[in-house]
Amino acid sequence: MECTLALPNAQSPDLYLAHPTSGEFEAIYSLGFLEWGDALTLPQYLEESAFLTNVPLARDGGMSIWFLTDKTLPPDHRPILCSCETFRNHTFLSDQDGRLNRGITHSVASVFCNPQYRRRGYATRLLAELAKKLPNWQAETGQCIGSILFSDIGTIFYAKRGWHPFPLNSQIDIDAKLVPNASQLGIKYIVEEDLNQLCKDDEAMIRETKTSTPTGKVRMMIVPDLDHMLWHIRKEDFACDKIFGKQPRFKGAVTGQPDNRRWVIWTHRYYGHPHTNTLENTLYILRVVIENQIADPEQREHQVGQMREILWAAQHEAAEWDLRTVKLWDPGYLLQDIVKRTGVENRRVERGDESIASLMWFGKGSGKEDMVEWLGNEKYGWC
Fold first, then answer.
1. pTM
2. Got the DSSP string for 204-241?
3. Where are the alpha helices (DSSP H) in the chain?
4. Which of 22, 79, 303, 311 is 20–30 Å from 142 (CA)?
5. What is the largest CA-CA distance in the chain?
6. What is the Cα–Cα distance from 351 to 329, expressed in whole angstroms?
7. By the 8 A CB rule, do 89 and 105 touch?
8. What is the distance between the alpha carbons of residues 260 and 273, in angstroms, rounded to a whole number?
């Protein structure tokens, strides 16, 4: 239950960050429904929000819920001035000489201010208080490297508050289409039971090739582990159960032999009910993996053919589940070339106002792209 007293000044020393009671949790997510309810009803969204606090990425302290409030008032009688979530991510970090370490970053998500409380400075105060806490938050689990967020309000607001926007905001969009599916193509669909080993293989390859090469820059990458994949998949499962009464069986597609495979992991996202003909409903590619990458374009033709089949499988899956578009974040130069050569019709899109990758750096130096290379800014790292 919210306080009915006059609202405090955003600079008041009585304001602090609190974690919600169960009643305050419901109030926070009831407000958030206005922005993130997607295809769910309010009761379903509240049920989903509680459910997602217990999936692997969130449980055991992996997810923290914060809100700005008045510390002089008792729980359940204090105002929810602004709120957000943070997620703890295992993160690879290699120095300029390629020495690899592992630490943590904290993702900031779902920053929300009650529309009646906006333009009073509460979001700025919440972020300022959060920036003080995060460098040492859960430090017992590893060195905290920094904090990331994906801005849906452009680059200026969060940059002014310490989260620097990185130039990693391109994507490839491909229309859903009933082309041949994986079974017809002879490639293999990925099911949930396959994910654990695939994520382990991916992590081992990253250790060997992605982060350990000296570049003169610090390299950072959110580990594409099973917990991140399952966070998206559990959200997918919940929504599809409510919309269709069933869950997608396939979580991606893979082709090739060990040490020479290509695979993608995907998730189904419904921003509106399919019956409303929502154009935004999307099959997101969470992660693309290409083993044994071939730098020479002339030697890459076999990889091109395999990727063509994988993209066809994704298009088919999207069409089967009433999704409009397949979206693939942050394609590197090699992947861009491979996708272009597949002949699969696609569009390169620069995200100018939404999902802008931003970093608050806790280490030495500026933490900007002149000294930090942010690898693997793919959808799996978004929360």
1. 0.94
2. HHIIIIISSS--SSEEEEE---HHHHHHHHHHHHHHHH
3. 22-36, 42-52, 122-133, 156-160, 182-185, 192-205, 226-244, 301-320, 333-342
4. 22
5. 70
6. 10
7. yes
8. 39
Kindly give the confidence (pLDDT) of every residue in the chain, 383 residues in length, as a single tens digit, with 9 standing for 90 and above: 444 468 999 999 999 999 999 999 999 999 999 899 999 999 999 999 999 999 999 999 999 999 999 999 999 999 999 999 999 999 999 887 778 889 999 999 999 999 999 999 999 999 999 999 999 999 998 899 999 999 999 999 999 999 999 988 999 999 999 987 767 787 999 999 999 999 999 999 998 876 555 667 899 999 999 999 999 999 999 999 999 999 999 999 999 988 889 999 999 999 999 988 678 999 999 999 999 877 666 667 888 999 999 999 999 999 999 999 999 999 988 899 999 999 999 999 999 899 999 999 998 888 999 999 999 999 999 98
Q: Which residue has the tokens 């806790």?
A: 362
DSSP 119: S
Pair of tokens at residue 266: 């995907």
